[in-house]
What does this fold into?
Amino acid sequence: MNKVTPFLMFNDQLEAAIDFYTATFRDSLIRHVACTGKDGPIASAEFVVGGQVFMGFNGGPYFTFSEGISLYVDCENQAEVDEYWDKLIRAGATPTQCGWIKDPFGISWQIVPRRFVELIRDSNPAKVKAVMEAMMTMVKLDVADLEKAYREASSDTTDSHAP
It folds into this structure.
């Protein structure tokens, strides 16, 4: 186990959540489950999603998830953004804004193309602002539209470079 591991407290949906997460994200698996009684439901589990280790527990209705914590998915390109977004939608997730989507278990995910991060690391503040403003109008992030905003932004500095 990692030194620090996210611990997710579900009401009673742990089994459904880990089945969905491990089926949806590459480099995922269920490491261990503990059941209540011989044939009882899963009470706790250790699982890996996208290479990240998680612990989960069915803790009852006392705990809920909020957007104060979200899971960030680093997507190589638009196709990968679309793949994860579509899988979450098919599972009943609710899109919010700016690349955020809440899964049916209450966990918020950020589905982010790597290109967005490259664009907002530019040294030209006008280009960064244009990309951020474009992102704020989106539900699912769109690489082509982000790049268009970047290209069309004015050049305020002479050392600006496209990452």
